[in-house]
Amino acid sequence: MRSLSVTFVSSRLRNMMLGAVLALGTMLATGSGGTAQAGVAMPALGSPALSLQQDVPPLAENVRWVCGPWRCVWRPNWRYWYVPPYARAWGPPVRPTCYWSRPWGGGWVHVCP
């Protein structure tokens, strides 16, 4: 009769071999046999779908708070200006005419005329 340790080792080795064979078979069946195939789902460079996408305007517009020493206003298409850290947390204004103002000796106040 075989000892318990020999039986355990042989069953463990058999399970590892079965797992390795299944993993190798799966890799070969799916075609990913160890080589990376980047860009399989991407369209070709000369495809008509790519040229159609270039004619579509972007759905998002660059908008941000533009701040001076006493007032911050919401400006569309403003790309090249520094946004102070305190204005980065402010969301868009409630109405188009709203702005942030800083009176003498106070903090920033949201003003909606």
Short descriptors:
113 residues, alpha+beta, four-stranded antiparallel β-sheet, 2 helices, 4 strands, 30% helix, elongated, signal, Secreted protein
Show the helix and strand layout.
Layout: H1 4-30, H2 48-54, E1 63-67, E2 71-76, E3 99-101, E4 109-111
Antiparallel strand pairs: 1-2, 2-3, 3-4
Signal peptide: 1-38
Keywords: Signal
Protein name: Secreted protein
In short:
The chain has 113 residues and is an alpha+beta fold. The protein has helices at 4-30, 48-54; strands spanning 63-67, 71-76, 99-101, 109-111.
Task: Outline the structure in words.
- The protein is α+β, with helices and mostly antiparallel strands and 113 residues long.
- Among the domains are: 30 residues; 49 residues, no CATH class.
- 30% of the residues lie in helices and 15% in strands.
- Strands 1-2-3-4 form a four-stranded antiparallel beta sheet, with no helix packed on it.
- A hairpin with a 7-residue loop joins strand 3 and strand 4.
- The longest helix has 27 residues.
- The N and C termini lie far apart (95 Å).
- 4% of the residues are buried.
Say how many strands there are: 4
State the low-pLDDT regions, or none. Answer: none
> Biggest sheet, strands in spatial order?
1-2-3-4
Question: What fraction strand?
Answer: 15-25%
Distance between termini? 95 Å
Over all CA atoms, what is the radius of gyration?
Answer: 32 Å
Number of helices: 2
Helical content stands at 25-40%
- Biggest sheet, open or closed, and with what strands and sense? 4 strands, antiparallel
**SSE topology string:** HHEEEE
Helix and strand composition category: alpha+beta
Overall residue-averaged pLDDT value: 75
Which word captures the global form?
elongated
Protein name: Secreted protein
Organism: Ancylobacter moscoviensis
Keywords: Signal
Signal peptide: 1-38
